[in-house]
Structures are given as structure tokens and as C-alpha cells.
């Protein structure tokens, strides 16, 4: 077998071309010295134009056929009966029915060349047939402009036009001695050809594969081995012409591009298993590669020469390529991993239905992409950067743990430990051009589209601001403080991890500073001491902010917040349109739990304090009874008082505390028994015990029934 | 975190179809053969599924190569799960007709809205391209 290089092939082609051209021109020139007598006399008089036109006409026909095949209008199937069974894949491969008229535009002189220059089968798309197809198709095309739809609607499209996969499968029948593996390889080489280059970038490969040494030139060298096998092409032209691609393009195009996809369809087999058929004149040539392929090298290679699952060597010898989780780059959440492995098992259990394209991407390639994407997901702070993923799996875990609670008791859920990765230098995206309004939008790989931040125009005089502006200010402030709060919470979470002594202290300090900052910022400087927190607190997000801040505050600061809340309770309750007050309850309850008796009394006084414009102190209380939050707060306070009283801890009360206490209790009890109560957020269990000690049976009974009716269950098991 | 590339590992041998939603609203279903880091996809034996109301229709499309930036979401179709959908498959002509009617109705309401606003001296700037911001 002659082995030709690319250069040789080009030479062959050009010589062929010139040969054809010469013959064509020879036809046109009547005074061709040697063979003038061979040509028909008609052609003798014909000028160059006619033959040129014939050439063009033929090309036009080729293009038309190609277009027809690609874009539909296979109407002929029903229109022309004489064309035989349309679904017969052989149909388009040269079995021209005798009923079809010969190409009228073909000049008689060209037939001598056409069998050689263009395979016979190409002729099978005569304009007559095309015309018929077009006529039928135009009506359909007007209704649906989509050729795919047209094709489907027509109902019986030829297999080839539908899917090249089917085409490929259909053409296998021509290759009798071809086994599926070799055929797969051919299609792989075709498809892999273009994609191979990406994976052959040594830089990327180096990043990927740390355990495969000795790569390198393998890829690039052996990327175009089939240029060596082009010598075979001539012999196979016939069989190539049977393929659908072949019918579209004359085989001279095959010769034209040695590295074209069409050519690379040639089954490119690995040497070892197919050595024995190397000598066969079958369509399975054994290419001689520049260097002998060792099994190890075969494993390492990507791109066009990537080994297919063959029994001898491959990255994964079994069809079901074992999925290796990406390496130490970034960890998946344990739940996620479990899900994937479950899915893996499930799919492995299913019987393998043979899918010719199922292994288009090798395991290495898949892993490469996965690793690449995982690299992008690395972060120091996954809980912040990848919040939704983390939260989702955390909740799933919690739910599972809850479900298993009854069965196995509390089990320690698997902790997610993400390896600490130093983040790259953070890119400061702010680009400010002098004289511009605000910032300029700069696109980078980190922020492809950067929205321009609106720079707020600051009003110098506070009094001139209108209400809306004030509200906007408050909202903006809350947002900023929230960001700081998120950092504080993050610090808290980090503290849970094992840190060094010095680090932990530094972290604590930083957290403290931030907490102080938020606390001070929440207090509006202008208003009186009592109403400091009010603006922020009237906004629901401000309530959330405060609720989350409370655990971080010192006891005194927290107490201050609590007293402020209780003293402004009427305002808060009335302005709480979206019922976001209850968000404060849990944090406040914890604060209450740490109060001393005196502090408690002080706070309770606010509950019973009379409003300036009403003489009756119980006005406030009746409002409280109607508010979930207010009532729950009251209950919590009373419960705390009862707890303190019934415990052995010395109370250290101030003067008048006990009186205030009893007064409060009486007042509250009478109020509670009279007015309708709403269901509180939490009903402490020691409330009735408290009331029992101070009140008479009747009141207690009334109280109890009132409370029970509100909550729907017994306040105390009697 | 994308589940797609990890679940892509399951396209080894079993017939696992994938569904992709494109930015222009098209839904494609087919065998996902290849993927790269930009989420460019190679779909095989693709079918474009058009949904109108409770009906849907499939148009076989062949091989699709989707540029990654046009992908909104990609998911795996679990063949094992019981298909208890209320959706009803209809022929292509029917679904296209339904789609045409739907578009027509939408256009008419839109036109009515615009004229109504114009009468009142208002005009809402239309976002010609939703992606521009």
C-alpha cells in the first residue's frame, strides 16, 4: 500500500483537477491536437461557454440535491410511484429507476467523465424529480415555514433526512465485514476531530491529570494520522460513494481535503486488535502512525485517537464508565454525593441497551469539565457564595434527620468540610472616570455586565428631606447594616470551626466592633433617647435585623432594646401592617430569660403604664391582648417572673418591686379574663401556676377558659 | 453547583434524555452527547416540544448544537418516574395552530393595552430585548 503524505495528496488532487479541466477545455477547443477526432462533432463546434454552462448546471443540480436533502421537500415519495420504495435506504444510493428522465442539461460529452468524476449515483437527482418535489412542497412550505415541521407533517420522511444517526446506522449494512466497534470509531473520529484540539491544550491537560505523566507531544503528533492512509482512498472511492455524504459531494472533494470530516470517517482502528485485517482490501485500512502506540500512550491520549472501550486498554474497560467524583478540588455536599451515587446505582442496574453514541465523551473528558466547573465554584465562604446550594442540602439533611429521628434516634448528620482555599486577589471592579456621573460599566470575566451603581445625591440639610427621602435613607441604612450583620454571623459560624487561639481572638474583636457599629447605627441620632430605634424598627427588615442582632448584643444593650420595644409597643403594633413583629419574639424571649427581677419589673411597668392621652392603663393591655406578639411578650415576661419567684435564686429586689409585681399580675389577670385573646406564639406552662397563687378560683377559671379557647389546648393539665 | 455535568456521567449507556430550556423559550429534548465548559451542548435526536396550555406537540429536529450562553437550564429526564402528567400530546399541525392562536391573542391584548394607555397619554417603554439591562 502506498503511503501518501498530505502534500502528495494535494498533488494528486491538483493533477486530477487539471486533468479534468484540461479535458473540459479540450472538449471546447476544436483544435485539440491529439484527440480532437474522439469528440463528437457537436461538441467540436461548441464553445467554452456551453461546457462551462453545463458545468455550472451540474453544480447547480448538485447544490439543489444537497439542499433538497438537507432542507426537506422529499415530496417525491408519494408523488412518484415509479421511484420505488422511498424508505429503502438503497434508493438514494444509485438505484436510478428507469422511469426517470436523463439529465437533459448534461452535455453528451461529459458522460465519459462523469462515472469517474462524479459517481453515478449523484445523477439520481434529476431536475424533473426535483421540480415535482418543489411543486408539492411549496404549498406546505407556505403553511409551515419550518422544513423540519414540513418533513414531519408529511408523515413519511426518508430516514436519511430525519437523522444522520439513522443514516449512519443504515449505511452499516454496506460494510458487511465491518464490526460495530470499528464503525463506531469512524464516527467518533469524525466527531472528535474538531473537539480534540481543545483537550490537547497541554496547559489544560496538565491541570487535569496529575497522575498521568509523560504526555506531551503524543497528542499533536498523532493528531493527523489518517493523512498517511490517504493512499487507500482511491480504492475505496466506490464504497464511499455509497454513503450519503458521498452522494452529495463528488468524491473529488473527498480527495481534496485530507483532513475533512468525511475522510476521517474512515474507520480508524487501534492497531492491536485489528492487525490481522490489515492486509484485507476491506474498508478497514490499518494506518501506520508516526510512532508505535503503546497501551499506556493510548490511555493518555485524547482527541481523534482517543481509545474506545476495547478489551485491551482504555481508561474504563467496562461500558458503564465508573464515575469518579472530582478530586480534591472542591467537595460536594454529602447529601449531593449520596443522591448521585444512588442515581448511579440505579442506572447501573438497568440492562445496557446499546446506544452507538453513548460514549462520545470519554470519562476523562467528562471529568475534565466537571473539574473545571468545580474550580470555578471554589470559595472561602461557600455558605455565602453558594448559599442556595448549601441551604438546600442543609434542609434536606435536616428533613432526613427528622424522619429518621423516630427510627434511629438522633444521628449526627455528616458535616460538610470544604477544604480551605485561598481565594485569588479580589478584583476591585470600581472604575471611576473623572467627570462622569457615577461609575462606568466595565465588563470583565468576573462581572460580565456590571450595572452602574446609582450614586445617591446627598441632601445637606436633614430637615429639608421629605418623608419619602427619610424612608429611603432608613432603608438604605438597614441594607448596609444587614451586610455587616451577615459578616458577623459568618464570623460566628467560622468560630465553630477549629481556629487557632490568636485567630479566634482576632475574630472576636472584629465581630465585636461590627456589632457595636450596627448597634450605634440603628440609633437615629436626631431623635430623642427613647425613640432611637424606632425608624428602623418600623420597617419589617429592620425588625429582622434587630432580631438577628440581639444574640450578639451585650445584656445591657439587649435590655435596652427590650425596654424600648415594650415602651413603644402600641406604636409598633399599630404600624405592623405586614405582621412581621413576631420575628422579634424568639430573640427577645431569650433576653427575657436572662433578666433579673428588678429589670423585669421595670419592663413590666411599661406594659401597664398609662398612655398620655388615656386615663385608663388597661387600654394598652387590651391592645396587647389583640396582638400575637404583644401577648406572647407579656406571657414571656410573666413566665420569667414566676420562674424567678419559684426558683431558689435570691432575687435582690428593689423597693416596691413586689408590690408592682402583684399589681401587675392582678391587672393582667383581670384583663386577660375579660377580653378575647388571640393565640400567642408560645404559651408558657407556668402561667396558670402563677395566677393560681394570686387570684381567686373564679377568676382563675375564667382566665383558664379564656386562654384555652384562644390556644385550643389546655393551658395546664388540670 | 451544576448537577448537569455530574449527571452527564449517566449518559454512558442507558437512554437518558435531557431537557434543555433555551433563552428564546424553546424546549429541546434529546440525548445529550457532549458538553463543554461553556455549556455548549450537542443534542442528538432532538425533539422540540411546544407547549400550549395543556397540550404539547413534538417536532423532530435531528442534531442540535446549542451555544452555551443560550442555555437557561438543563435537566435530566428520569425515565423511571411514573408519567402522571395531565398534558396531552397532539399533532404538530394542531399545536402550531394553537401556538399561533395564542400569539395572536397575546398580540391583540397587547395592542389593546397600548391603545388604552395611549388614550390616557401614557406610554410604557417596551423592552424589545429582555436581556438588555
UniProtKB/TrEMBL annotation, chain A:
Transferase listed as a keyword: no
UniProt keyword annotations, A-Z: Cytoplasm, Nucleus, RNA-binding
Region (Disordered): 91-136, 331-356
Entry's Gene Ontology BP terms: deadenylation-dependent decapping of nuclear-transcribed mRNA; P-body assembly
Pfam families: PAT1 (PF09770)
Biased composition (Low complexity): 115-127
Localization per record: Cytoplasm; Nucleus
Domain mRNA decay factor PAT1: 432-571
InterPro entries: Pat1-like (IPR039900), PAT1_dom (IPR019167)
GO cellular component terms listed in the entry, alphabetical order: nucleus; P-body
UniProt similarity note: Belongs to the PAT1 family.
Protein name as annotated: mRNA decay factor PAT1 domain-containing protein
Species of origin: Oncorhynchus tshawytscha
From TrEMBL, chain B:
Listed InterPro entries: Lsm1 (IPR034104), LSM_dom_sf (IPR010920), PTHR15588 (IPR044642), Sm (IPR047575), Sm_dom_euk/arc (IPR001163)
Keyword tags: Cytoplasm, mRNA processing, mRNA splicing, Phosphoprotein, Ribonucleoprotein, RNA-binding
One Gene Ontology biological process: mRNA processing
Keyword Membrane attached: no
Matching Gene3D superfamilies: 2.30.30.100
PROSITE patterns per UniProt: SM
Subcellular location as annotated: Cytoplasm; Cytoplasm, P-body
GO annotation, cellular component aspect: Lsm1-7-Pat1 complex; P-body; ribonucleoprotein complex
SUPFAM superfamilies named in the record: Sm-like ribonucleoproteins
Pfam families: LSM
A molecular-function term among this protein's GO annotations: mRNA binding
Domain Sm positions: 5-80
Record bears the keyword Ribonucleoprotein: yes
Subunit structure: Interacts with SLBP; interaction with SLBP occurs when histone mRNA is being rapidly degraded during the S phase. LSm subunits form a heteromer with a donut shape.
Function of the molecule: Probably involved with other LSm subunits in the general process of degradation of mRNAs. Plays a role in the degradation of histone mRNAs, the only eukaryotic mRNAs that are not polyadenylated. Probably also part of an LSm subunits-containing complex involved in the general process of mRNA degradation.
Family, per entry: Belongs to the snRNP Sm proteins family.
Name the UniProt record assigns to this protein: U6 snRNA-associated Sm-like protein LSm1
Organism encoding this protein: Oncorhynchus tshawytscha
